[in-house]
Specification:
One of its GO terms (cellular component) is urease complex. This protein is α+β, with helices and mostly antiparallel strands. It contains two helices and eight strands; from the N terminus they run E-E-E-H-E-E-E-E-E-H. It has helices at about 55-60, 105-120, and strands spanning about 25-30, 35-40, 50-55, 60-65, 70-75, 80-85, 90-95, 100-105. Strands 3-1-6-4 form a four-stranded antiparallel beta sheet. It has a two-stranded antiparallel ribbon with strand order 2-5. Strand 7 (about 90-95) and strand 8 (about 100-105) form a beta hairpin.
Length: about 130
Amino acid sequence: MSDLVPGELLPADDPIEINAGRETASVTVENTGDRPAQVGSHFHFFECNKALAFDREAAYGMRLDIPAGTAIRFEPGCEEDVDLVAYGGDRILRGMGGLVEGDLDDEEVREAAFERAREAGYMGEGG
């Protein structure tokens, strides 16, 4: 009979490196709104809540560098430094905040996303 327990995880001894070789950035985020804002691990940070003031240009094509399935909560009036990591794979986004529709590395998609962001009020102070 086996000593294994159903569903048991047996992690390897070696550490697992995530996001190796991907571009990273750090931004300071201020919640200028009147209520908390929460951003999940895989949401395109460029497109998150327009009440969050930060360098959106630096955040284009990036997500929070936190474990999958987790989130960061930004309290009203507070500033927080966060680390971002570039998306991998095909780098094609659709939906999210409705600003990016296509290949993150396509200059026309990027220009259209920034124009939509300006028109929708995402590019306020700090953005």
